[in-house]
Amino acid sequence: MSLASPFSICIVAITALALLGLPVGHAMIAGSILYLWMAGLDMGTAAEQFLNGMYSNYIILAVPLFILAAELMNIGSMTDRLMSFCNAIVGRFRGGLAQVNILQSIIFAGMSGSAIADAAGSGKIMQNMMTADGKYPASYAAALTAATSVIGPIIPPSIPMIIYALVSDASIGYLFLAGVVPGLLMAGLQMVLVAVQARSRNFPVEAPTPLREIPRITWQALPALLMPVVLLGGIYSGITTPTEAAAVAAAYALFISVVLYRSVSFGDFYRSVLASARTTSSIGMLIAGALVLNYVVTVENIPQSLSVLLTSWDLSPTGFLIMVNLILLVLGCVLEGTTIILVILPVFIPTANALGIDLVHFGVMCVVNIMLGLVTPPYGLLLFIMTRIANVPLWDIVRDVLPFLYTMIASLIIITFFPDVVLWLPRLFGYQG
Question: What's this model's pTM, rounded to 2 decimal places?
Answer without folding.
Answer: 0.77
